[in-house]
Every structure is written in C-alpha cells, then in structure tokens.
Design brief:
homotetramer; 31% helix; four-stranded antiparallel sheet; alpha/beta; Alpha-Beta Plaits; 2 domains
Chain lengths: 337, 337, 337, 337
Amino acid sequence: MIVVLKKNPEKKQMQNLISWVENLGLKVHLSEGTNSTIVGLVGDTSKVDIELVRTLDIVESVTRVQEPYKNANRKFHPQDTVVDVSGHKFGGVNFQIIAGPCSVESEKQLIGIAEAVKKAGATLLRGGAFKPRTSPYSFQGMGVDGLKLLKKAKAETGMPIVSEIMSEEHIDDFEDVDVLQVGARNMQNFDLLKKLGKLKKPILLKRGIAATIEEWLMSAEYIMSEGNPNVILCERGIRTYETYTRNTLDLSAIPVLKERTHLPVIVDPSHALGISRFVKPMSLAAVGAGADGLIIEVHNDPTHALCDGAQSLRPEQFEDVVKSVERMLPVVGKELG
Amino acid sequence: MIVVLKKNPEKKQMQNLISWVENLGLKVHLSEGTNSTIVGLVGDTSKVDIELVRTLDIVESVTRVQEPYKNANRKFHPQDTVVDVSGHKFGGVNFQIIAGPCSVESEKQLIGIAEAVKKAGATLLRGGAFKPRTSPYSFQGMGVDGLKLLKKAKAETGMPIVSEIMSEEHIDDFEDVDVLQVGARNMQNFDLLKKLGKLKKPILLKRGIAATIEEWLMSAEYIMSEGNPNVILCERGIRTYETYTRNTLDLSAIPVLKERTHLPVIVDPSHALGISRFVKPMSLAAVGAGADGLIIEVHNDPTHALCDGAQSLRPEQFEDVVKSVERMLPVVGKELG
Amino acid sequence: MIVVLKKNPEKKQMQNLISWVENLGLKVHLSEGTNSTIVGLVGDTSKVDIELVRTLDIVESVTRVQEPYKNANRKFHPQDTVVDVSGHKFGGVNFQIIAGPCSVESEKQLIGIAEAVKKAGATLLRGGAFKPRTSPYSFQGMGVDGLKLLKKAKAETGMPIVSEIMSEEHIDDFEDVDVLQVGARNMQNFDLLKKLGKLKKPILLKRGIAATIEEWLMSAEYIMSEGNPNVILCERGIRTYETYTRNTLDLSAIPVLKERTHLPVIVDPSHALGISRFVKPMSLAAVGAGADGLIIEVHNDPTHALCDGAQSLRPEQFEDVVKSVERMLPVVGKELG
Amino acid sequence: MIVVLKKNPEKKQMQNLISWVENLGLKVHLSEGTNSTIVGLVGDTSKVDIELVRTLDIVESVTRVQEPYKNANRKFHPQDTVVDVSGHKFGGVNFQIIAGPCSVESEKQLIGIAEAVKKAGATLLRGGAFKPRTSPYSFQGMGVDGLKLLKKAKAETGMPIVSEIMSEEHIDDFEDVDVLQVGARNMQNFDLLKKLGKLKKPILLKRGIAATIEEWLMSAEYIMSEGNPNVILCERGIRTYETYTRNTLDLSAIPVLKERTHLPVIVDPSHALGISRFVKPMSLAAVGAGADGLIIEVHNDPTHALCDGAQSLRPEQFEDVVKSVERMLPVVGKELG
C-alpha cells in the first residue's frame, strides 16, 4: 500500500500514522521528496482500513498494491477452482446450466418443470422457497414446504438442487440442498456469510445490485476465510440509470473476474433484464464473455398463464437456448455437463 | 394501477390477466381503443407485483397510481409522525442531534465523548458495537461488551443511546438500547426488518447505498406492517459514479420524502463524504433541505491520533457545527432538543 | 400518452392542460373516476414535452404509449435497415469489423496498420484525426492532415474509412470520409446532428457515456428527421459506479435496440474496458448479444512500444479475435463482410 | 504521479515507459522492491495521459499526486476568484441570484418577469433563446430574436443578462449578453469551450449530467487555458438510478469544489428536481453547503397556465425563496448583491 502525504505534513500526525501502521505488524518505507512524502507499507496490508487512511488530514491519496482479498485472489491460487456438485463441475472447461421456476408453487408444477429442463439439457435444478420481496404484501415463498418439494424433485430426477437462503436461522432446513444461494440483497449480510463459511457446501454468491467487483470478492472472502472454499459467483445485473432494462447485465465483469480470482463465475440472464425474450441473446453473450455457467428461470404451468412472457421461459424456449449455447461452447473451449 | 396493453393483444392472455387481477380482489375497468387497450385496476393494488405485470408479453407499460406503501404513506396519514425517545422528539418542529464515536472502544473513550457531545448540544448518543465491515479482516466491533459500555454512558449522562443491530440473533442484547439502527447493508434484510417490526422501539432505518426512495419506504413498510410505527429514516449518501466523495449525499430526497411520507427523516453527513471538514457545510445543507435531525461522528481520544482528520469531528469542531445549526433552525421553523 | 391526474384536480388547471393538448392537434379522452382522473392523449404525441406535463401540479403520473421517436422506430419500419458502405453492409444478416489505430500518427503507421487489419479480416478502416480529450494539455489529433492520410490509406487498400467529426465547421473536410463518427461526448450536440442530417453519408452515432437508450434514439432521430436515414448505432460502454473497468459495456442494450429500432447496432469493446486483453471476450459477447459489427483499436508500431498492452491490440491478436468471431457468427445467423 | 508496476515487469516495456516519460520532460524516480517496482514521475504531469499509462501490461496502478488542472487549481491560486458582472460579484463573500424564464417567449412575458424578479431581489436576469431539447420535435427556442428581447429587458431593468450558447457559430450574436452559459450537454464540446476561452466574458459552465468533478474542472481548464479566467461553475444535478427526482442535486460537490478550486460555484435547484415546490428547500440547502449563488426559473404569465406547478416558480413564490435565503446568508458569512 502506498500512502502519499500532502506537502509538509504535520510531523506528529505523520508519526502517529507510522506507529499505527507498525502496530499492525507492517514495515514502513519512507521517501521524502520536495513536493510530497511517500509512505510505503510492506507486509500483509489486508488488515489496513484503506478508507480510514484515505480520510486522514495529512493524506493526499492511498493506492493499494496488494488486493484486500487473499483466499479468492488468483495471485495466490493461479489454477481455476473447480467446485464439484455431485459430479457436475463449475469452473475450468466445464459449463453448467441451472434451470427451474422462480418460486416453488406445488409438487406438480415443480416436478413437471424439473423433468422438462432435465430433458432440455439443464444440469441442476433451481427453485425459490424463501423469496426476498421488496414489498411485505407480496408472496414470500412456501418456505420449508418449498424445500421439501425441491428434495422430492431431486429424488425423482437425480438433479442436484439450488435454493436461496435468507437467514442464518434456516441453515438446518437446507441440509439436503446441494447449493445454497445468497441473494443480491444479502451479499453484505456478514453474519449470514460467516455462518455459511462454516459449512462445506457450495455457496452461490450473487452480486449485490450495486456492489463493486471488489466488494463482491470481499464477501466471497468472508465465506472462504471461515473455511469454505466452495464459492460460485453469479453476475445478475447492476443498478444503473437506464430504464429500458430492469438492470444492466455487467458482462464486462466476467473477464475481469477471471483475471482477479480463481473462483467460477456464472450469469443469471433472467433477472437482469426481466424479460424472457432477451434471455437467449444474453445467454449467448455470457458464453462469449467466458462465463462458467448460466442460471435460467423456466416455467411450464399452462394453467398459470399469467407468467407467460415474463422473465421465465417455457421449456421449449429453454431448449432452444440450450441448443444454441451448446453450439457456441466449443469456440470458447468449454463443454456442458 | 393502469396497464396499457400492446396493439391487438392476444385475447387469451388478456383474459388470463383479468382473471388474475380479479382473483386478487381488484376490479377491472377496460377501455379498448384503436391503438391500445387500457386496463385500469381499482382497489388495493399494493399486493400487485408490478414487475411481474410489466414483463407480460401483451403489456406495453404499467403505471402505479397508488403508491405500494400504505402505513408510511402521507396520503393516509397527513400529519407528521413524531417519534418520542425519552422526551426527545423526532419529527414536526423538533430537531435532534445524535453524536458519538464510530466504534465503542473503551469506557474511558466513550464516557469522555458522551460528556463532550452532551455539553456541545447533542441530544442523543450514538456508538457502534457491532460493525458491518467490507473486509472480514477488519475490526468487527466490541459486540455485546460495547453495548454494556453504551448503557453505562447512558446511565452517567442521561442521554438515550442509538446503536446498530446486524442480526436478529442479537435482539435481546439490545433491550436497553433506545433506538435500534438498521445499517445501509441490511436495509433489505427482510427477516431482520420483520423481527424489528414486532418491537415497539424506535428504529433508525438507514437508506441502502443504492436504494430508491420507494424501496426505502417499502423497507419501512416491512417494519410498520408488523405493528411498529416508530420508524426514523436516515439519508446517508448513495452510490454514484463520482469518486471525489465516497458517496453522494442525496439531499433532494428530503423534500421528496417530506411529501410522500409522514415519517421523520434525519441526515448522516459524516459517512456520505467520509471527510470531517465537510461535515459542517453538509449539516447546514441538511437543515436547509428540511431534515429533522443529524447523526454525526465525534472522536475525542487524543492518544488515538490516527483518527484526527478522518470522518470524525473533534468535540470543539462538533460544537461549532451545533452552533451554526442552531442559528439556522429558525429560518426553517424548527428548534433543537 | 396517458396522464393520470391527482385526486380532485383544480378545474381551471385541468382545462388549461386540455386546451394546450388540443392546440397541439391531439384529441383528449377524459375518464373521471372517484380516486383519479385519467386523460388519454390520442394522435401524434411525439411533440408533447413529457417532462413538462409530468411536473404540473395536478398531474400524478404520465405514461407514454407511443415512443417519442418515429423515423428510428421499428413499429413504423419493421424491416432491418441495411446501411451500405461501398458494398459493405451494416444490418440484417451482415457483420462488419471496423479496425484501425486510435489516432492517426503518420503515413507509415497508418498504412502499416491498414494493410495488417485488412489481411486479418477487417472490412473497414478507422482512425482518429480529431480527438476529443478530457484535458486541453493532451494531444488533440492531427486534424485535417490526419484525414489526408486516411484517404491515402483508403486509396492504397480499398477499405472504406471511418473517422470522428467534432464540429460542424469541419464537415467539408470530411467529404471523402465514408462514415462520419459522432463521439459519445457529442451525442447531444444537436447543432452538429442537424447538420449531419442534411448529408446522405452513413453516420456512426456512439452512445453518450450516460445516455439512456431513448435519448440515444432521439439523437438518431435528429439526424433522420433532417433527411439522412443512414444511422449506425454504436454501444461503447456507460458510466457506472464500478471502478475495475473504465466503463460498463451495456450489451443488454443490443437486444433491446433490436426490438425498438430497425437501425444497425455495432459494439466498441476497446474503449469500454480500456484493456486490450478483454477485447476478445467482449467481442464474442457482442456477437452473442446480436450485434451487427465491431469497431476495434489495433496498433502495430513496434517502435511506439508504450501502447503495447493498452486498449489497442497488435495485428496478430486482432487476427485471433476475428477468427473466433467468424466461428461464432453462424450460431447467430450472421456472416462477415 | 506514482506508477506501481506489476511483480517482475518485462524490462523492455519498463524501459519504454521510462523513455516515454522522460521525453515528456519529466524526471523518473525508480524504487525497486521485492514485490513491486514503483516509478515516481516528477515535474508537470498534467500532460501525462493517465488512462494510457493505467492500461499498460506492466502497470498495476497509477496515482496522481498532482491534479491535472492548473489554472483552476486552488493550490496555485489560493484566493477566491471573484467574477464581476457589471458590479455584481460572484465569489468571496458575495451571493447572486439569477432568475428568469426557462424560454424567452415574447417581449411582454420577458419584461414582465424581469421586473418581477428584480423587485423580488434577483440580481441578474436569465432567459433561454437557444434551447437544447432531447427531441427534434420540441420547441428549439426563439434563437436570435430571443437574444434581442433579452437585450431589451436589460435596457429596461438594468439587470445583466445570462443566456445559453449552443454553437460556436452564434458567438457574434451573444455580443451584448453579459454571461454566456454552457449547458450540461455541451460541457465537453471542446471546440466550443476553446472559442469561449478566447473571449473575456464570464462563462457559466454547467456540470455535465454525468460528469465527474474532475472532468468538470478540466472543461473549465479548456476555457482558462485559452486566456479567459472568468468561469463560474454551476451544479445542476447528476444522473443516478433514483426515479422520484429527475436528477440528484449533488450538493456534496460544493465543499469539495471550494477546496479544489478558487472559482465561484452556483446551484440550479430548478432543473435538478424539475418540480417548483422543491426549489425553496434545495435553495436553502445550497446556501448551507456554501454556494456562491443560485439560478432559478420564474414564470409569470397567467394566461400560459400550463407551466403553473412545473419547475418554474411564480414571482410571489420566488420572493419567498429570496427572503429565506437572505435570512440564512449571515450564518455562512455571505451577503446578497
């Protein structure tokens, strides 16, 4: 970390800064020039609060040389992490497609979709039991009963299941769930992250709606520093000023992440735009950008016609997406399954 | 709610939409024109998922006429809500100044600051015991021990205390804390909000770093719909592209909120900019915009010199802010205390 | 356009609004309910200033049913527009790759790059003669001399040329330039757009760094409404809070534009991220999203080593991008050239 | 400027970088550590393209120690610049209120408003003759005829006039206009800025809708580096994700600017929020934040009732704003006029 001090810094404040840094176990390299003084901090600077240093009166600017994340950092772990979910691998040359309904609504609905998406090529089943909703007046999900239906669908189809956990109080209920999803709104629910770090299960960590890539990796670090290395990142769109789309899918983040971290990264093209007819082009774009997988909403209940045309695809549309994705994978050196 | 359908909507889909709406207990007014069909929904539309309707194939656009929040809505509660904290009133013509250290660090530090800010004019004492930190390697706060020190400071100074709660597991520990703060990162931790709604205590609800005003009011609604009307909103800066300031303090939100809701709104000028020398102008700006109070970080530990110049003011600087604020309050028809 | 009025609107203001609307040649459909009054405007509402109506005291909300752009609107022109540049077609099943240096620096440099990119598969040559620079102290481009070199390169290689115009004063200098580029900073330089609308030449209209898709289409409309239908849109990244990338490439905009407009859309993967090693994945992502072409910076001057590794690719890296793009095009039903 | 290189940088690339820097007339201080090499650039680094350096393969990060703006920089010009417009001073302890209609529409309208705002306390008159409009189908302003009416109003009331210039072609028409305004959309129309830098007249430079403070100061630098020191900055709201307000008025920018530059800064509370009833609180907030003036839209035409309630105040509302502002000015040590 390099701290540039203002011209003629107050000596006592400078000495205070140096003592504080040394108390953290770091070495200080001081270089005093005519126009500015440069303080280099050498050692493990991940414990230095950069925001605090930046706001000191005597400080002009602070530059991190070392990233604040360690476990998630590709510099210290050059090979791709491959997260194995019952034989389905995330990372490396592997590509996974997770599919299923937004919310679990009934056994018939869920089993129907599970069979349809399996047939179409999906490798894991998703389904929401606990639903984070902006409004307290909206349906909040089936809860524990929804998890039971997911386990039934897993038993019938053999597909591993992925579902969102919203509170540390429910961890026991997720025992047979293969991948625990942390939603965008909980990306910085640090108490929850720490608890998930004590498990060994794969955690699907969605990017917060306005999280920087660095904050996202720091949240992965919360999980990993507690002992759980099985983190799968999921880009799902960020908040911008644009209003024609619900969110802006940040595919630029994929190659950046591939360089910074060894963790697998998948993309959710359903939620970002919120419109099913854009799922196909954005899925292909995600493949081009280098993603390790997709998570796609599929709905098949013909009697629940309201959802037609919303962000969920029908099974036949989903099959068409899978086919195009499979044609594209060889160009980026990946394969499905 | 007004739903404009696309030209020549598919009849079956339109009928599905109408049935779905009627099942929610709403009435439908249909007006078919040559270029578009307009569906007006009459009744309590707060239960309608506008995102879902917007994404239907046959829908061109959706406009809410009725806001999705009810308890927080000024239309249904025209008078200002006044939240009373041991005689200190938030809302109406009252103005409160909450002050104290970022983190509770020791008894000596806390009591020292508490006495200093009280003397300078602060009406409530703040202090962080549980600290939400981006990095797992940063100091996470003193926890329950910090709360104990806060209660001591309350006993010695008579000032009500404000502290942040990060997990529903700690609710019992906050029993003697007067105001429970929900931080920006937990603004949409819905499980936590529901639990706080079952209390009767004042909740200081900070705006999420990228939350819209509507989402913020919906989070207040989570608390209020469970039975707790004592919500104080706190603007603390939003995330934008600007990098010279840590966040952009959105003072435009104050008059907008004053029109939309009856809840009191205070401003945190310390965190938004992250620089103590900007606290004074932004405090005066908040008064001008119509805020009902301020929450300001103050630090007095001369041996802990690192924090000089950071976002915390020294007591004498804080006193200067209070004096200017007091001179300005009559212009906006408010008074301190 | 649907205007929802507040409950019990002041009669005189409502009458004023209706008269004003009727004076614009529109018809008014009034529907008075118990809770709100709905005013439907029928006719060509593109001349109605929606911002103005939205801010009236009596107005609760305004919804456009008809988009404000007409010439650019796919509703009135369902077929793809195909812009022909000396036989190279933008739009439909065609895919074009424009390549060349950021700035024209010398004849040797330009001809060298031109030959290299042509060999690698580029179909048009780009090069900056007038450079919009944030700082007045940065190199502002070779100006008219740069244009002369571009024309030489065109004569030698047969490739059509693309260059940025920054001021209406230079229109005559661009006479032999095949495609005139409007940069992000000038996307709402309306005087310039109107002048370009009087030409017949293809205009490459880059998206403003914080422009909405609608504003972008309205800027296309400025050109088209003056009589020039040959507009090619170019997505080049938008400004967000993320700092690991220079801008966020908004590939979600591609399928949205394909639905809203008949104009061709290309992508600039060099400027958005600003890093050459991300050009390949973002180029493939752009193909997946449905773009009609790419514009890529290529640099070949081995003595000018500073630029190695910056946003410009070397010719051999560019060739690798072209090859992968060509493998991917059949999946989206397009072909190069 | 401090350039941190990656571990084990390629020697030839490092040498290229050093040669390039030295060719720019700068000195290089090299400090090679075990984990990173630090290159310090000493001298006038305003000519170094930081974006270019940042994207080099061997570079880890770049930190500016010296700001890229010189003429606008308070470090080199510690005293406040005071811009004098016919005796009305912007900057220092002075506070100005510019008021008038959004668009000039007729002599009667303009003279009426001019007299009303003068009586209410305004010190300068504003009025739009050339109007930048998102849509080509909206009214584009009266043009040169509007300027003539402004000059008449100036002759009748003695108030200096402020109007927006959109193209360098109109500079002669603005000869008798006292302050030339550059709108948000033209903040980076560099050809226009350079031309205005050749004048001696005060330039009111609005912040671009998504411009950083640094970009804004660099645009001021374009004007100042051509010889015109009379620049007045105007904050008018920035684009964020929030939709309840048209833009987010960035009052945090005021104290930041006051520290970085010696130029006067005023605030436009009418355009940012777009709603007249929010003009008063945001005007008072601007005073609190330390602004040197306000520019406010006022409308007085009772027959042109459409505009009632929009972003323009009526004269009696404007007078109320002026009175409150005057009560608040002593608290911040300023006075009107």
